[in-house]
Structures are given as C-alpha cells and as structure tokens.
Structure prediction request, 418 residues.
Amino acid sequence: MGFFVFLSLRKPQCIMIRFFLCSVLLLSLFNPLSAQETIGSFSKEKLKAFEDFLEEEINFQKLAGVEVLIFQNDTVVWHSVQGYQNLEEKTPLEKNSLYYIQSMTKPIISLAIMQLVDQGLIALDDPVANYIPEASNLRITKNPQKGKNSPFVPAQKTLQIKHLLTHTGGLSHGLGNTLLDKELFQALYGETLDYTLHDTIESRVATLLEFPLIGQIGAQWHYSASTDLLALIVQRVSQQSIPSYLKQYIFDPLGMQDTGYNLSESQAKRMMQLHVVGADGNIQISKEQVPTKGNTVYGGTHGLFSSPKDYAKFCQLFLNQGKMNNQTLISPEMALKMRSNMVGNLLGNSRGFGYGFGVLRGNVSPIKKGQFYWNGYFRTHFIVDPKKNFAAILMTQKFPYSQEYGKQLNKWIYAALE
Prediction:
C-alpha cells in the first residue's frame, strides 16, 4: 500500500521523502550506534565482551585483578584494568601497575645476546665453555628417575650459544616430575618463592651445570634455565652488570622506565600483589610476596618487574624490525631470527621456537601463522602478530601457573579482529 501512496504524492513531496530516506540510510551506515564500532582493526564490542569475561573471573574469585593492553600500528587501541591490586585490602588495580613477569624476562635477555651477535662480539656457534668453563665435559643422564647421581654417558656434541637460545641444549628448568627435576628445582630455587638461596647469577649457573643434562645436545626441545647462562655471557662479554647493560642498550632506548630487577619505593607501591588459589578454589592474597628491593641475582630465566606499557614497547621493537625511537637496537636480520623457527620439527608441525620467542609455524585456531609469544609463571602473557601488526599483553599475579588466560587472550583478541 505504501508504494502506491508514494506514487500518488505530488512531485515536491516525492522529492522531499526521497531526500529524507537517503539521509536516514546514510546515517545508519555511519552511526556507530547502528554499526559495530571498531578501534584499529578490532571490534570494540567484542573487546568489551573480553572485559566482561575477565570481570566474571574477578566476581567468581578466580582473579584478583588484571590489566590488558593492545597496540596496533604504533598506537594503543585498548587499555583496560579491572579488579584489585590487593584483594584483602580491596586496593583497586590501576593502569600501568607493575608485575613480576617471571619468564617474560627470557626474551629480553635473548635480545641482549643477539645484540652481541649482531656486533660480532660473539657467534651463535660459539661453544658456551668459551665464556663459562663449567659448561665443558657435560654428561647426559641415563635415567632421570635416579636423580642427580644417576648413571650417565658423555655429551656427543658441544653446547653452543644457539642451543641456549632455543632450549635444545639438554638443560632443564626443574619443573618436571622426575627425581632429577625435583632435585634440580630445590637446588636452584628452593621453595617457589625463596629468593635467598643464591646471591649471584654465577652461583645459580654453577649449580645448574653440576647436574647432568636430560638428553643429548640438539636432540630435543626441553624448556630450561639456559637463559641464565645467556645472562652470564652478556655480563662477561660486555663487562657490565646485567642491570647496567639492559638499561643502557634496551630499556633506556625503548623508554622502558618501569622495568628492572629492583623497584624504587614509588614503583613498589604500584606493584600488584601475588595471589594464590586457596583450598576452596578461590583466589586469596599470598603470604609470600616477591621482594621488590635487595635482589642480587640478575637472572635470565626470571627476575624482572615490568608493566604492560613497558613490555608493549619491547614487542613493538620487533614489529618495527629492530628500530625504535629513531634508533636501531638490533638489525632486521637478527630480529627476524629471534621470531623465526630454529628448531625444525622438535615441537611438531605447528609450533616452533626462535632465538628468543615461541613461534607459530602454522595456523592453530584461532591463532594465525607467524605469531610469536611467551608468558610468565605468575600468568603474564604477550602475543605479537606481525601480519596484523599488533601486540597484546595481559598481566596479573596468580599462582600456580596455567595457560588458561593465555588461551583466553588469543581467543578473544582474534575474535575481535575485523
């Protein structure tokens, strides 16, 4: 009926109605209330859904607090913070809080080593024993269930710097269930939060090398404390302490002012407290907290504090092919090697490991080929996608470790991509 009424109108009225309908159509196309709003390449609505998911985790006492930062094309496109810095005191978590990033220290130390390679001061094929004499005459356990003093065979290959970068040197982290791993963990770390067992990185490395390797060098990928050896090599080759080297050649050039092994008094006030899962399955404040000052083991496996904003700058360096703030921190070639698979099929057909990062060799839904990433033991996570030119960082402080929030980060971030 409306069609015939429209035709029966006089010409001026017809023109006015056409103009009105066209205007409504144009407004519907460009009005953010009627079309899904985007930030960069991300759906704001779907990122808000991720925020809602995290809020539920907090409400159900699975998380105390969490901070998420996403940047794309050199711009922060999303930065949210939820929950509490200290659940017991109900202290709100604020943007740019500080977190103990545990194993997210490893890629930073790997960058330091690759800078030395870039300058020709060391080579990837160099024997580790050239810099750490204790790394010679290594032995391989014949039965890790028999612990440190199990029967052994000699190593068939020389341990090289590239093996340390890729976790293919046969070293361990002490995180497994064998007697060897349990003894190693106790020797390296004592209890999980005992930071007084060793006074220096030299002491911890010497202890690590007293233990037999879990397999022949280059024969397997096994997550390890090898990055501690890399830190010691950086220290000895540069003739600087690790904090001094990192500040001069990485943190200051990148503007990472909140990253280090010790915090100032004002920084310590911004530190999110560690929370643990209680007997009832709910989150609660940990009785033990990471010391924010007086730390003297400047390790490569863990040890750094940082913020999402700072770590985003570190990730951005690799999206910029090694350049940042008009400075070249590492050549494009070396930056690419850090995020390219260097371990063949040791991790299967889809995943790999470069000279510093875990890498995706194939699509693993929802993650896309080419992504590189890593995480920390207290559930800090980062992912970087060079094809989409973005990085996403999620930080909290929850023990024990799980990949749960790393998986959720990937799920929601890729769902939000337009």
User: Anything to note?
Assistant: The radius of gyration is 25 Å. The chain has 13 helices and 19 strands. The chain has a mean pLDDT of 92. The first strand starts at residue 38 and ends at 39.
